[in-house]
Amino acid sequence: xxxEKKLGIPKGHVIxxxxxxxxxxxxxxxxKTGIMVFDNNHCKNLDDFTPISRAIRSRLITDWAIMIxxxxxxxxxxxEKAEKILFN
Length: 88
Prior knowledge:
Elements: H1 2-7, E1 14-17, H2 21-26, E2 36-39, E3 42-45, H3 52-58, E4 67-70, H4 75-87
Antiparallel strand pairs: 1-4, 2-3
């Protein structure tokens, strides 16, 4: 509510998401995960079937993240002022 008030937009038009810190701290272990697939009596790595598994494992995780969601009609004002309001 305070955030919306500072932006001058009506209550209920902004969602702010701060993902849980543990999610970011634990996520890097995915690059150590090997998923095996049983195919025609042979056990193979998922990498043998799709490049998506490599892409998921190589994804970099930042140590912080924030997502601000708002209605289309308030997007410009939120993008212009949100950083200053949240981090100053």
